[in-house]
Amino acid sequence: AAYQGLFRNPLADPYLIGVASGAGLGAIAAMAVHWPFTPLGMFAVPMAAFAGALLSVFVVYQLAHVRRTVPTTNLLLAGVAVSSFATALTSFLLIQSTGELRRALVWMLGGSTMTGWEPVLGMLPYALIGLGIILVNGYPLNVMQFGDEQAQQMGVRVERVRRWVVIAASMATAAAVAFAGVIGFVGLVVPHVIRLIWGGDYRRLLPLSILGGASMLLLTDLAARTVIAPQELPVGILTALLGAPFFLWVLKRSKSQNYW
């Protein structure tokens, strides 16, 4: 929801625009060089994931924006390019890695398979700080939907808000990817469902999207553990099966409604 409001584009999802893939690349790179066993300890993987996510969203924005707007076609093309590049580098690291790191491939498909408190404590600061910054920027995001110039006239410091929301959304994405892998389409489906039911006020949309995303992940994780029990499906497979048709519907809808 934060990326959608920031780019004023309904398809700005961390998975579709390559931010999640960038975070995944950072996490795998940290594992490859054994950062978890350095003095950074349990914070190494989330830190590397945050760096990858931040770099990815910066590249996508630079490639996609045209005169302070981000057309849907440009956003998708830039996202596909960045995601493909990050995925290729991730695959290279996995192929060149030891057998222990190759098990991270299952983690990359998405799923909350980690145990113990260390992974939770490692990603918790990124999640809390990122989500906290996002939540306090609900009103500025509302005003920015009218355009940067009008937002500035209404007292919103647009560049400052944009910078902080990008950093915060990247932190939240990094925390999620570092803990559960790359799980696609949750950030696309949930905000749209919330928007259809409760409206587009970001002061309400952002907290409800956080709760809705967590609920969707819990339900899909439960389904992944029970559909073909005793085997377990990666959560990312189920979210893709649900999210891909929804993405096509949003894409068709946005073509006739000026992005919204």
Protein model, in words:
With 260 residues, this protein is mainly alpha-helical. The protein has a single domain, classed as ABC transporter involved in vitamin B12 uptake, BtuC (Orthogonal Bundle). 72% of the residues lie in helices and 0% in strands. The protein contains 13 helices and no strands. The chain has helices at 2-7, 19-32, 44-64, 72-95, 99-102, 104-108, 118-135, 138-144, 148-153, 158-180, 186-198, 202-226, 235-256. Helix 2 runs antiparallel to helix 3 (44-64), helix 2 (19-32) crosses helix 10 (158-180) and helix 8 packs across helix 12. The model has no long low-confidence stretch (mean pLDDT 82).
Strand content: under 5%
In CATH, the architecture is Orthogonal Bundle
Number of strands: 0
* Amino- and carboxy-terminal Cα gap: 13 Å
Low-confidence regions = none
Radius of gyration: 18 Å
Can you give the helix content as a percent range? over 70%
CATH third-tier fold name: ABC transporter involved in vitamin B12 uptake, BtuC
Q: Assembly state here?
A: single chain
Mean pLDDT: 82
The number of helices is: 13
